[in-house]
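Structure in, sequence out. Go:
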């Protein structure tokens, strides 16, 4: 399994449009065969900041996602959302344990 985690910061005045774009991207991405989970989560104490969390079966799935039309559409809308910061890190997972 591969985990991708990070954050995106947008102009809070663009929140409504950004959340529409994020929702469209989440829906299309969750339909991808190699996707396990994918979501944006609002930071309650920082308007305009969203945590990104993804789980993938393999690198090929991530590569296909990054080449997809829905991902390209989202990336092209960066100026429309007034993105001011992005940080994304990928982690290879060799073992998992359910805690609850």
């Amino acid at each position: 399994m591969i985990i991708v985690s990070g954050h995106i910061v947008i102009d809070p005045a663009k929140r409504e449009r950004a959340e529409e774009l994020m929702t469209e991207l989440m829906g299309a991405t969750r339909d991808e065969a190699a996707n396990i989970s994918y979501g944006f989560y609002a930071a309650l104490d920082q308007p305009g900041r969203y945590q990104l969390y993804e789980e993938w079966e393999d690198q090929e799935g991530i590569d296909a996602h990054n080449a997809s039309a829905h991902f390209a559409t989202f990336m092209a809308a960066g100026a429309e959302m007034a993105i001011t910061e992005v940080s994304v890190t990928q982690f290879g997972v060799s073992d998992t344990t359910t805690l609850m």
